[in-house]
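Posting this for the archive.
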Amino acid sequence: MSMACIQDIYRCDTCMAAKDEFGRGCKYGDLFPLLLLMSGNSECKNYEFDAKKVELHLQRKENVRYGCNRVSVPPANR
């Protein structure tokens, strides 16, 4: 039996509205994904792809493969 998290269903981990790269803290409200689930929506209408978060996921996966647990995040451009 497999289990899916609400954040997996609505791809919160790669959305610009999420506060971090794990998909936590939607800017539309912390319970917004739950509202989507309860209303029967299959996708989030506010979803915007964030390439930087995907880059962090890939970098973390590569670091785990080679035994390094740290993720280096470049400084923000000003």
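The helical segments are 6-9, 32-39, 51-65. The radius of gyration is 14 Å.
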